[in-house]
Amino acid sequence: MEKFSEIVYKRPDMAALKKAMKQQLELLKKAKTYEEARAAYLASQEITAHAETSYVVASVRNTLDTTDKFYDGEMQFFNRALAMLMPISKAFIDAMLRTPFRAEFEAEFGKQLFTLAEMAQKSQSKKIIPELIAQGTTENNYKKTAAACKTTFRGEECNFYGLLKHMESPDREERKEAYLAWAKLYEGASEQLDKQFDKLIKLRVRMAKKLGLPGGFTELGYLNMHRANYGPAEVEQFRAQVKAVIVPAVAKLREEQAKRLGVEKLKYYDETCIYPDGNADPVGGEAELVAVAQRMYREISPETGEFFDFLFEYGLFDLATRPGKHLGGYCTYLADYKAPFIFSNFNGTAADVNVLTHEAGHAFAGYTAMRSQPLMDYMSSTSEVNEIHSMTMEHFAYPYMKDFFGEENVAKAKYAHLSGALSTIPYLVSVDEFQHRVYAKPEMTAKERRAVWHEIEQTYMPWRDYDGVPFLEEGGFWMQKQHIFLYPFYYVDYALAQVCAFEFYGRMKKDHSDAWQSYLALCRAGGSKGYFELLQLAGLSNPFVEGSVEKAVRHVIEELNV
Ligand code: ZN
User: What is the 3-state secondary structure (H, E, C) of 202-225?
Assistant: First the structure.
């Protein structure tokens, strides 16, 4: 393959694509033997992979430079074009579910293929195309609003990323000011954000109604997340375990943090400051950290070494922050090239190291699955599993903390990571409960939604003290979470996966090579099986089962000494 920057992008010919899919659909319907049906199915997978690769190239380039009008136009094209593909993709799914060769398909590819098809059949319909297009447009508007959020800090105009470093400052006054500026940034945009969220809720609820789903958008959201094994009741039980096991431990961590910082009461702007003399920063910028990561991946295993060298050789990451670049970080996949791509905005904090472990964990899993799985549909799993890949890699990177942060900072960096991973879980489940309550009562006003957020916060983060800032006291904090706007119901998957990653971490302490082999097997399996089966394959506990959170997390609480 060529380097990512040299890949020639061409807009897919949608009419030709539809025609090719229709041809395969006819072949699938008419198939007299399994071989014929199989060939049609695999050909359709290839056609889809090809179009998707073009989409991913355009989408990555759009985020690399949001001022580039060409790729911005391509994204608008895809928003409509992909929605218009739904009828043919739905017809294909229907044909697969009616194939007389199901047993043969299942014997070769497993049952997951049909589980996915059954879920897609419930969640896809021509009827919702207008809402899908409107949703895409509203989501894009939201992204623009969020990216344009600006505020002033000490006389300088800056966005969210400009404030981050100050928000972690060891100087309490500086952090407080930075957080106030941050709150102003969202308060200033809140009217617009509320409107956009209202619109998204209405569109999503309407789609669920048109599809005839009695569980409303919650049911559709679960289907879109490909949750075949569990529903809201199980997730509620998981949140109850978090409340019983993790919330009290984090409350103690917060008390210790207050003592360490020498403050009487920990305020919201203190939570990100772990040490009075400042958090541990990485040893260098992009070049140094990528070199450390490359050494680390070569040392961890032959598979990870080969993977990282591949990323390096083909320019499959863009890490530096630049004006015009989209915010945040992500990992995506170019199916045609069996290649992952990592996007980030380095800012000189520990978050940079996290990109090279977390996002690279996703990238490694994708790279591995794309080479182990025969189907496009199996190249990645559902996000509760995908986030196990990434979060567990963060723990496999612990022995290399000295290289990323310097020998003198190892204890600090490791404590910050481990306590941070545990302390985030109550927030993750808060976002989850918020979404369940929002979609259960979609007619709520913006003000009522804020009251709900405030109440949830008090349940899972009783230590949270907004220091009398009215916007935050009345529940404005939820607004900073882009997942609530863009990726409904995703957030609990981070919590489910972190619990599994903690279990892996416990196993690393006991038998490193056994933990690595299980992890590798999980990455190789990609999305070829359901969630519960993949957990079993990796020897992990099911987080919904009472007692499993305690079992997975106890050793972390002990290590953190609370
Ligand atoms: Zn992730």
Answer: HHHHHHHHHCCCCCHHHHHHHHHC
Distance CA 58, CA 78 (A): 9
- CA angle centred on 17, ends 528 and 379, rounded to 5°: 15
Ligand 1 center to 491 CA (angstroms): 10
Length of the chain: 562
Both tokens of 504, joined, read 């892996």
494: CA distance to ligand 1 center in Å? 8
Count of CB atoms situated within 10 Å of the CB of 346: 18
3-class DSSP state of 152: strand
Whole-number Å distance, alpha carbon 526 to ligand 1 midpoint, is 15
Distance 36 CA to ligand 1 centre (A): 38
The two structure tokens encoding residue 493: 């998957």
Q: Percentage of residues in the chain with pLDDT exceeding 90?
A: 88
Ligand 1 centroid from CA 359, angstroms:
6
Work out the pLDDT band at 544, boundaries 50, 70, 90. Answer: very high
Q: Read off the pLDDT of residues 358-397 as tens digits, 9 standing for 90 and up.
A: 999 999 999 999 999 999 899 999 999 999 999 999 999 9
Cα-flanking dihedrals φ and ψ of residue 317, to 5°? -145, 155
Distance 114 CA to ligand 1 centre (A): 26
Neighbours of 359 (CB within 10 A): 23
Do residues 96 and 34 lie in contact, with contact meaning Cβ atoms separated by under 8 Å? Answer: no
Using the mean position of ligand 1's atoms as its centre, give its distance from the Cα of residue 215 in Å: 28
Q: Other C-beta atoms within 10 Å of 144: how many?
A: 11
Instruction: Find the distance separating the first CA and the last CA of the chain, reported in whole Å.
Output: 51
- Ligand 1 center–CA 394 separation, angstroms: 11
Of the listed ranges 252-266, 315-329, 408-422, 478-492, the least confidently predicted one is 315-329
Q: Which amino acid is at 450?
A: R
Average model confidence (pLDDT) across the chain: 95
Cα of 118 from ligand 1 centre, angstroms: 26
